[in-house]
Amino acid sequence: MRILGISAFYHDSAAAMVEDGRIVAAAQEERFTRKKHDASFPANAVGYCLAAAECDMADVDHVVFYDKPFLKFERLLETYLATSPRGFRSFRMAMPLWIKEKLFQKKLLRRHLGKLAGSKEWSGSLLFTEHHLAHAASAFFPSPFPSAAVLTMDGVGEWCTTSVGHGRDNDLEILKEIRFPHSLGLLYSAFTYYTGFKVNSGEYKVMGLAPYGRPQFAQKILDNLIDLKEDGSFRLDQRYFDYCAGLTMTSPAFHHLFGAEPRKPESPLTRREMDLAASIQAVTEEVVLKLARFARQETGERHLCLAGGVALNCVANGKLVRKRIFDEIWIQPAAGDAGGAVGAALAAWHGYLGHTRILDGQDRMAGAFLGPAFEQREIEKRLTASGAVYTVLDDDAVIARTVVDALVDDKAVGWMQGRMEFGPRALGGRSILGDPRSPTMQKTLNLKVKYRESFRPFAPSVRREDVAEWFDIDTDSPYMLLVADVLDRRKVPLGPDEAALFGIDRLNVPRSEIPAVTHVDYSARVQTVHQDTNPRYWALLSAFKERTGCPVLVNTSFNVRGEPIICTPEDAFHCFMGTEIECLAVGNCFLRKEDQPSHLRQDYKAQFELD
Question: Which of 170, 270, 180 is nearest to 234 (CA)?
């Protein structure tokens, strides 16, 4: 039996195919259209999922959408009525789209699916699941746990913004909810907007900026914006926000409380923005910890599963692990709306159809490598058509040795191997790699390769068997969703003058044996690499360790600021030629920048809208 899950029409549209309970394919639409956070119907992602399952729409038993549009419309309508006449402008802008499309989403979906089926409309089984149930299903059903507490947190679905659930075998029950307008995700997004970053895109920048500041506004947030209870429940004072009735996240009262208007995007960052970021991060961590304690108490479970956009806050996740509230935690790698496609399909398979789970101690996301892969012959054909000059290295050991040569020579290497990752993190399938021991690599990658803000940190990839030798963590972190400190013995002591530095001035001070992946607070967003899920990347780390004694590499997503992560060999070559990446490995093909035709170089950073 085949079930196709779809998330669409808000942001990060995606599709996933579940075949007899097994996730066989999943991908975000943005990877195909090259439009960041693409919200359109995921026609390309669905087409890929059908191809991966070797079927067409006639062979799909159920299509499941991750949202209930009428419930969402009910929430919007009630919100506008409750805030009238102040919300009329927002109401006037939203209603034409709802009346034209979203109220008739079933018909719209059937029309899109019909195009893929080669007809005007598809007449198969179309199901809808609630947004947070899809999140919860994406967290629990692929996890390795027979039973677990389930915590979901995001901006808002239909009404729910936060849920605590309990999963047992194929049964998943939502026990408690917090409802709109009270939302931890929207609170964090309000500070994302206020500090000058883009909502639904820049939240991770706030998280990365937080260690540069001090949480001096945290108590002001707790005293004024959020009424937080011991069980993790909370209410937001709507006087300070404008997302219900207006077109921005924060209100004049918010600006008055914090003493200034929102920072203009792309303007210089000051100590104030750093302190605001540190403050909202501290409050978020406090809320998450209280919710987790409540979930443990309510369910009695020793395991926790997480999903929803807030579950991408890897700093909060790392703190949750260190507090030992639960014995083990599993986080859906596509925790945001894209993962709702997986959750919707699994909710139908286990909940609607009642199939039991297959439990063997492994998670069912297959390392998140669920996207397209390209055979070597096709890679060569596509690169040749793009004008690329490459050498084919037939032996895996030669590929690893050649890439290691480039890395120890302080070069940035584009690395495209195997299936594309599902979710927002590059995990060694579509990555840009560097030597973590280099004191200049972090700055070089940010400014000359990624074309992004200099303060943003990079993640370390490390072999799972070596992680405890370098970081204060000894658990699986395959999806780069846990932050841990670099071990004390790997740190470099700071002199008095260095320790006195504040903000961005701290960026260029090496503070460990692996400075390129050590953030200013000695933390790192750790990815453990496992031989069974990514053997070629694991082999590269092994070769790098054999050469240098260090089993760690800098791993950042293969894209520039504002661009989706690459999907195809052509995407990889274009990004390679448009940036200062010096070498590129695609399958068995190895490319050096100096060998490429000069007329193919381009100013890549100007091609994408800033995120």
Answer: 180
Query: How is the chain split into domains, by residue range?
Result: 2-138+336-362, 178-330, 376-606
Sheet of 583-586: strands edge to edge?
391-392, 589-592, 583-586, 413-416, 430-434, 552-557, 459-463, 523-529, 482-485
The answer to whether the 178-330 and 376-606 domains have the same CATH topology is no
The reply to whether omega before 181 is within 30° of 0 (cis) is yes
Q: Show the beta-strand stretches assigned E in 145-199.
A: 147-153, 160-168, 171-179
Distance CA 25, CA 16 (A): 6
Phi, psi of 334 (to 5 degrees): -100, 65
Q: Where are the beta strands (DSSP E) in 219-313?
A: 226-228, 234-236, 303-307
Best CATH choice for the domain 178-330 from the list 3.30.420.40, 4.10.240.10, 3.90.330.10, 3.40.50.970: 3.30.420.40
Q: In whole angstroms, how far apart are CA 367 and each of 34, 214, 425, 428, 529?
A: 23, 36, 11, 10, 9
pLDDT digits (tens, 9 = 90+) for 543-599: 999 999 999 999 999 999 999 999 999 999 999 999 999 999 999 999 999 999 999
**Residue 9 dihedral angles phi and psi, to the nearest 5°:** 80, 10
Q: How many CA atoms lie within 13 A of 27 on its CB side?
A: 30
Residues in Cβ contact with 86 at an 8 Å cutoff, skipping those fewer than 6 apart: 245, 246
Distances in Å between the alpha carbon of 476 and those of 306, 463, 483?
Answer: 15, 10, 12
Query: What is the rounded CA–CA span in Å between residue 600 and residue 544?
Result: 31
Whole-number pLDDT of residue 84 = 65
**Torsion angle, alpha carbons of 504, 505, 509, 514, to 10:** 0
Residue type, 542: S
CATH number for the domain formed by residue range(s) 2-138+336-362 = 3.30.420.40
Helix-helix angle 43-52:105-117, to 10 degrees: 50
Torsion of CA 193, 563, 270, 190, to 10 degrees: 10
Strands (E) located in 154-302: 160-168, 171-179, 226-228, 234-236
Reference 425, options 372, 368, 467, 471; nearest CA is 368
Which tokens is 359 given? 């439990």
Task: Assign 516 to helix, strand or coil.
Answer: helix
Positions in the chain short of pLDDT 50: none
Coil vs helix vs strand at 591: strand
Which of 3.40.605.10, 3.90.870.20, 3.40.50.1000, 1.10.10.2840 is the CATH number of 376-606?
A: 3.90.870.20
Strands 552-557 and 482-485: unpaired
